[in-house]
Amino acid sequence: MAKFDLSTPWGRIGAYWDFFWSDHAYLRLGFQNAHWIDPRMLRANQPWPFQLKWWQGHGIKTVLNLRGEPHKSHYAIERDACRRLGLTLVDFRMNSREAPTLEEALGAKALFETIEYPCLMHCKSGADRAGVMAVLYAHFRLGQPIREALGQLSARYGHFRQGNTGVLDYAFERYLAEGEPRGESLIEWLGRPDYDRAAIKRDFKANWWGRLLTEGLLRRE
Asked: Can you give the residue ranges of every domain in the chain?
């Protein structure tokens, strides 16, 4: 964290410079990809401090960071902003190119039952990791069947299933094809001894143009 020490003027300048360019924060100055799932949960991309202040003024109490990376500039800036604004910052790292684990699903369920609402949850773009967590939120907290909750993973939010991030959709579709017909809950299916995340990733085939879009043009994490 010393590289982005916001307690010094040069450290603050360095952090914001890295945030602006390396984290592509310039793209998020006027575009937050913000959508309320329900009146208690908002999904968005990585917020600027002034955006956090705006959301705090609209009732947000908790910020749920799905990126992790405490050594990066975005985290140093967000942590500083949350401290100054009196917002609770919660870290829960998710993956955008791996099938979910049982531990992630159980952790998300427990988290949704304990955090203070209203909450803003975000990844970098608000599309993939925020999308899979939005599916879990809609399922666990709102009681939506997975088939309905999967609407949170769509192009409307900037998620493109044709790229490598489409493995998220594919994992849930495997549950609908395998676990749901057996009457298994998502948790039960993820906990099966034969649940194989590596095999799901191998079986998923992204389109070349989808990979070009998500890995090249959009440079998704």
From this structure: 2-160
For residue 201, give both structure tokens: 């990733």
Determine the pLDDT at residue 157. Answer: 96
Q: Which residues does residue 41 pair with via DSSP β-bridges, in sequence order?
A: 38, 119
Class of CATH domain 2-160: alpha beta
Amino acid at 152: Q
What is the per-residue pLDDT across 20-62, written as a single tens digit (0 to 9) for each? Answer: 999 999 999 999 999 999 999 999 999 999 999 999 999 999 9
